[in-house]
């Protein structure tokens, strides 16, 4: 427990000291919200009748939280391994669960602040997002989403040995996923075959669950299916992360 507490405190201090990263972690999704809000203001998707904001707000929030979870743990594991910090932790009494647990708590904290800030801005005049009555379900959905993408970030951080490779792999996965999973463009307006392709992407399930919980674009079954999909991907990513994790560059 003392190792977990120490690692969590150290991770928190390192995050708040890196003011540039902190700024862009929270500002990046808001920038997309402002851009899409201005471009699609007052417009709706013909296929569903919902406003574009009901799609883009939930989708951009999902992408922002997922992106932060992937990059946060990915860069941390790579840097700690390169600096031999992981090797020193391995030689100490601290178990691996303390290392991952500390990063998990920090990722949950970042995701919570991101969500509150994002929804607060989206409710301002000009965006006029009205949360659905089931908005509290957004909390467990976000916890599952952060868990799933944290595990994906662990895989990336375990196989990449440089900051450039972490950024390259993460962007290769996250950017196409954002467009093909409905974060930036409504799935309802996409061809059927692209909608089917999105079913193999975890961000699709996070988008659907967040949309149903936050904006009411869907029902409880959509939240359930989205959560089930995230759990399935979390199990797969967790198994792969356990096999690929490395304390050092060679083992």
TrEMBL record:
<feature type="transmembrane region" description="Helical">
    <location>
        <begin position="223"/>
        <end position="242"/>
    </location>
</feature>
<feature type="transmembrane region" description="Helical">
    <location>
        <begin position="166"/>
        <end position="185"/>
    </location>
</feature>
<keyword id="KW-0046">Antibiotic resistance</keyword>
<comment type="similarity">
    <text>Belongs to the ABC-2 integral membrane protein family.</text>
</comment>
<keyword id="KW-1003">Cell membrane</keyword>
<feature type="transmembrane region" description="Helical">
    <location>
        <begin position="101"/>
        <end position="125"/>
    </location>
</feature>
<dbReference type="InterPro" id="IPR047817">
    <property type="entry name" value="ABC2_TM_bact-type"/>
</dbReference>
<keyword id="KW-1133">Transmembrane helix</keyword>
<feature type="transmembrane region" description="Helical">
    <location>
        <begin position="60"/>
        <end position="80"/>
    </location>
</feature>
<keyword id="KW-0812">Transmembrane</keyword>
<keyword id="KW-0813">Transport</keyword>
<dbReference type="InterPro" id="IPR000412">
    <property type="entry name" value="ABC_2_transport"/>
</dbReference>
<feature type="domain" description="ABC transmembrane type-2">
    <location>
        <begin position="20"/>
        <end position="248"/>
    </location>
</feature>
<protein>
    <recommendedName>
        <fullName>Transport permease protein</fullName>
    </recommendedName>
</protein>
<dbReference type="Pfam" id="PF01061">
    <property type="entry name" value="ABC2_membrane"/>
</dbReference>
<feature type="transmembrane region" description="Helical">
    <location>
        <begin position="21"/>
        <end position="40"/>
    </location>
</feature>
<dbReference type="InterPro" id="IPR051784">
    <property type="entry name" value="Nod_factor_ABC_transporter"/>
</dbReference>
<dbReference type="InterPro" id="IPR013525">
    <property type="entry name" value="ABC2_TM"/>
</dbReference>
<feature type="transmembrane region" description="Helical">
    <location>
        <begin position="137"/>
        <end position="159"/>
    </location>
</feature>
<keyword id="KW-0472">Membrane</keyword>
């Amino acid at each position: 427990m003392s190792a977990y507490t120490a690692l969590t405190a150290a991770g928190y201090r390192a995050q708040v000291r890196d003011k540039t990263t902190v700024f862009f972690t929270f500002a990046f999704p808001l920038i997309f919200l402002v851009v899409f809000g201005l471009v699609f203001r007052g417009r709706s998707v013909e296929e569903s009748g919902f406003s574009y904001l009901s799609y883009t707000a939930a989708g951009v929030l999902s992408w922002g939280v997922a992106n932060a979870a992937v990059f946060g743990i990915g860069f941390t594991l790579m840097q700690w391994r390169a600096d031999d910090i992981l090797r020193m932790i391995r030689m100490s009494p601290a178990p691996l669960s303390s290392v991952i647990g500390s990063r998990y708590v920090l990722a949950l904290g970042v995701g919570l602040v991101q969500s509150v800030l994002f929804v607060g801005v989206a409710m301002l005049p000009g965006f006029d997002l009205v949360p659905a009555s089931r908005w509290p379900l957004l909390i467990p959905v976000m916890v599952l989403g952060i868990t799933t993408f944290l595990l994906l970030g662990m895989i990336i951080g375990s196989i990449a040995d440089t900051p450039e490779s972490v950024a390259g792999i993460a962007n290769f996965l996250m950017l196409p996923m954002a467009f093909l999973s409905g974060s930036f463009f409504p799935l309802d307006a996409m061809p059927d075959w692209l909608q089917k392709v999105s079913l193999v992407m975890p961000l699709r399930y996070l988008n659907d669950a967040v949309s149903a919980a936050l904006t009411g674009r869907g029902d409880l079954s959509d939240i359930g299916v989205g959560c089930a999909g995230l759990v399935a991907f979390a199990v797969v990513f967790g198994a792969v992360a356990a096999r690929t994790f490395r304390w050092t560059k060679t083992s």
